[in-house]
Amino acid sequence: GCCGSAERAKREWKPLEDRSCTDLPWFLLFALFCGGMCAICGFTIATGGASRLLFGYDSYGNTCGQRNEPIEGVRLSGLDHSDRKYVFFLDPCNLDIIQRKIKSMALCVSQCPTEELATYSDLRRFAMMNGSELCSYELPGHKYPHLPERFEKCPKLPVPESKALPVFNRCTPVDISCYAKFAEAVVTFVSDNSMLNRLIAGVAASKEIIVGLCLLALVLSMILMVIIRYISAVLVWILTALVILGSLGGTSVLWWLYIDYRMTMNETMSKDLKETEDTNGGMKTPKNHAQGLLIYAVSATVFTGILLLLMLFMRKRVALTIALFHVAGKVFIHLPLLALQPFCTFLALSLFWVYWILVLLFLGTTGNPEKNEDTGLVEFRLTGGLQYMTWYHAVGLIWISEFILACQQMTVAGAVVTYYFTRDKTKLPVTPILSSVLRLVRYHLGTVAKGSFIITLVKIPRLILMYIHNQLKGKENACARCMLKACICCLWCLEKCLNFLNQNAYAATAINSTSFCTSARDAFMILVENALRVATINTVGDFVLFLGKVLILTCTAFTGVLALNYQRDYTEWVLPLIIVCLFAFLVAHCFLSIFEIVVDVLFLCFAIDTKYNNGTPGREFYMDKALMEFVENSRRSMATEERARSKRSRPKEEVELTEVTTMAPGTSSA
């Protein structure tokens, strides 16, 4: 079997009957990996990286707000900064945009400058009055105006008014014009500062409307998941009509352009054109243009013909998509907590990402102190095997993020499986979602860890190739660029296919409590047996959901235009409207992705139900009435086709029998 899974002579599906732990070794491996992530965090805290990030440190390796140990080979290290809690940069506006670092010398001070200091006399006065020396430690404050080192070891004048950042204790200039260069690099699309100010003012003035429109998008998304079962049939047939009319119209236009061009070329063929043809060696450009139009028209005709044939063969399977959408709407009515899944997943991902970013920042200030020969500043760097902790931490970002998303898929699949395979819906658990979560935590965390790890194995090479492609942009040749893009595209397609297979494997695990490989194999066989149905659902269904996203986006945007119309200057409401539209599409995508998972799980359950049950006593269907009607209609249509075929074959049999009876007397007389 696959990865150690046991082979079975015949697959026996026993929904919700047996429960056992699946892929336990992978759960242990994932637990060890998470332990490694926690160990990295503990290492950064134990070695002072966390304290250096939170409290800050100066250019000599001293952490502000505490006593320090001297660093070998670094002067002015090992100072007692218990009364100096803030980090002050001599030139805070000297930014390295590429490396995202402040290249200025940093000092620990007891107080940030509360006013602008224009001269060295002001620096001396501030030091004498507040006891906060803003020049290097070896320079006495009362001699600032007369020291020759003041131009290198004192702050650049004028010193702007600063305030300490909350938690991080860095003195930051109050006037953000100090960062004009950085802001210009970030918003290069803005050439007029007044325009940027108007955009920001528009967002500030419309913050209540923005919040209201975001809530509107949220409510519309939740409502659409319930009512989409009533409008799915209309959307599907509108989609079908638009596709057919669009393909026929496009093909007709191409043929009309080709015929019109040929007629125009024939009419304008004159003596001058013939002379030009003789002179230039033939009218290659018009002929090439006509041939191009002909190729386009023929290709469009072939495409339209194939499309119409697919529509003809798949028209009956569209009814299954409509029935699945109808049942999915019922699922959300019986399991309303499914609508909270995007919130729970977003919250879990947000908390993990915040933790991951904090540990990454801790790693940036962890390691051995080294003096930068170019700047003369002390930097902390990981050396030896410790530098691989950053790569380990990066892999953790991908694997754990995929693990959280897979837990959502398994939770939704478990709840939908419970709904589908419970014949009496009044006997559903009080909280099917909570029951699914408990089953996941108790039995199937190893399966989720294994599935997410497979996605990680595909995602990491793709991200590496994307990084290489961006680094070599403009340097590689055309062949290398094409190969890189082809590899990235192939890995992306493989990742999407594996995501779809993983999702169905989680559903199979939720049904029969089998390991990941066994579930993936069984789900794959079911999908292959229903390939045309899968293609119909994934094309028609996905496009219907896309239309739902567009519907939510347009409704929110239209309401936003009406609400923001009081601001006559369009530059004041265009940015709030863009923010609202992006949020509306993101919310619609999150909610309708849950709906898509429900539809896919329902289809797998339906395929298993129809394969192993036939409606007879002892083998009753589990399916909903809407799906039962689809099965009955399919049976009636198949019976009608059988009767029609039998009627067509009966006259031939009678003719053959007549010929045999007429030939029999002649044969006997002979």
UniProtKB/TrEMBL annotation:
Localization terms from the record: Cell membrane; Membrane
Pfam families in alphabetical order: Choline_transpo
Transmembrane segments: 24-46, 209-228, 234-259, 293-313, 319-339, 346-364, 391-421, 543-567, 573-606
UniProt feature, compositional bias: Polar residues: 659-670
A GO CC term attached to the entry: plasma membrane
Alphabetized UniProt keyword annotations: Membrane, Transmembrane, Transmembrane helix
Region of interest called Disordered, as start-end residue ranges on this chain: 637-670
Segment forming the signal sequence: none
Recorded superkingdom: Eukaryota
Name of the protein described by the UniProt record: Choline transporter-like protein
Chief place where the protein resides: membrane
Tagged with keyword Nucleotide-binding: no
Entries under InterPro entries matching the protein: Choline_transptr-like (IPR007603)
Family: Belongs to the CTL (choline transporter-like) family.
